[in-house]
TrEMBL record:
Coiled-coil blocks: none
Native source species: Streptosporangium brasiliense
InterPro entries for this protein: Homeodomain-like_sf (IPR009057), MscS-like_channel (IPR052702), RNaseH-like_sf (IPR012337), Tc1-like_DDE_dom (IPR038717), Transpos_IS630-like (IPR047655)
Alphabetized Pfam families for the sequence: DDE_3, HTH_32
SUPFAM superfamilies, per database record: Homeodomain-like (SSF46689), Ribonuclease H-like (SSF53098)
Domain of life assignment: Bacteria
UniProt-recorded name of the protein: Transposase
Domain Tc1-like transposase DDE positions: 191-318
Length: 361
């Protein structure tokens, strides 16, 4: 009887489809996926040495998998019995640990904990956690989402992303928004500085000394920011901020302003101002889609670097800190790089809508 390792390996269509499905696995059954890739490579006619080099594994591993597949076909790729203590968790218990969190919540609670489910199934909490990890389940986590109901969603995405990826010649593009009611917060006790082995410590209670609104316009090409502080964010304040952008932008350039759908953007005072300044064009982001406005990314940097750990004993101190941080940013300005095309964004939204639109279990 000949050596199976020397025989050509030919797959039926059903075997090929099954092996391709196994080979695509990433989070579970990594060993089975690796064996499937070895058999598929062998079926293409490669020698054991060539397959081993392509997959970066030992030649003897390829020979062993080829031989076992030729002898037992798909059954030859399954795990062989191993020495050691017998399993204490049955297949039925594994199924219950996986299915229960997917189909129903425990009585009187919103989600399963590992200890509660362990009591119900009759295994240890550590066993429940191992099974959840194997199947990618995380019942303790939750995420928020909001799909924009804007009827012009796709058109607005293409408009805004087009300004990021292919800005018009002879024009300046600004991403504009305001950060309202920034609080001048003073901690009730002095902040204790960081020490080796001890993080900075601050009291949880605070004294509030008022609020201020910040209008910001991020130049998407240079990364520089035009900022203006205001006590309020009315339509007239937005109009005055447009005046500030007009003063700080070269006269010969057209100005494209990306902003949200707040009512102050469409007030009569702003409309009259736009008629008097024809070089300005407003581009509105989709409803509930502030993520597409690049200035929001700049606000996140402002919050992280200046406001989260800032202590301001007065409104003047907060104002001075904001102006100083904007100046420091502009001295080392860098633009944010937009990488997703409009088609990629729309495709991802469509895929997500398809997932959440399926019938409930």
């Amino acid at each position: 009887m000949g050596d199976n390792r020397l025989k050509p390996l030919v797959l039926s269509e059903a075997e090929r489809l099954t092996l391709q499905g196994w080979a695509r696995r990433r989070t579970t059954a990594q060993g089975l996926a690796s064996r499937a890739r070895i058999v598929l490579a062998c079926a293409e006619g490669g020698s054991n040495m060539a397959v081993a080099g392509g997959l970066r594994i030992h030649r003897k591993t390829v020979a062993r998998r080829r031989s076992r597949f030729l002898a037992d076909r798909l059954d030859g790729l399954s795990d062989e019995p191993r020495p050691g203590a017998p399993r204490t968790i049955t297949d039925a218990q594994v199924e219950e640990v996986v299915v229960r969190p997917l189909e129903a919540a425990p009585e009187g609670a919103t989600h399963w904990s590992k200890r509660e489910l362990a009591r119900q199934v009759g295994i240890s909490p550590a066993g429940v956690l191992r099974i959840w990890r194997a199947f990618g389940l995380q019942p303790w986590r939750t995420q928020d989402f909001k799909i924009s109901p804007d009827p012009l969603l796709i058109d607005k995405i293409r408009d805004v992303v087009g300004l990021y990826l292919a800005p018009p010649a002879g024009a300046a593009v600004f991403a504009v928004d305001e950060k309202p009611q920034i609080q001048a917060v003073e901690r009730s006790t002095p902040v204790l500085p960081m020490l080796p082995g001890t993080p900075e410590r601050r009291s949880f209670d605070y004294i509030r000394h008022g609020t201020v609104d910040l209008f910001a316009a991020l130049n998407t090409a240079t990364g520089k920011v035009i900022g203006r502080l205001s006590a309020r964010h009315r339509a007239i304040d937005f109009r005055n901020f447009l005046d500030e952008i007009d003063r700080q932008t070269e006269p010969g350039l057209a100005v494209h302003v990306i902003c949200d759908n707040l009512s102050t953007r469409k007030a009569p005072a702003v409309h009259r101002w736009l008629l008097a300044h024809p070089r300005f064009v407003l581009h509105f982001t989709p409803t509930y889609a502030s993520w597409i406005n690049q200035v929001e990314r700049w606000f996140a940097e402002l919050q992280r670097c200046c406001l989260d750990r800032g202590v301001f004993c007065s409104l003047d101190a907060l104002t001075a800190a904001l102006e100083r941080w904007i100046k420091v940013w502009n001295d080392n300005a860098r633009p944010f790089q937009w990488t997703k095309s409009a088609d990629q964004i729309v495709d991802r939204i469509c895929r997500y809508c398809g997932r959440i639109s399926k019938p409930a279990r």
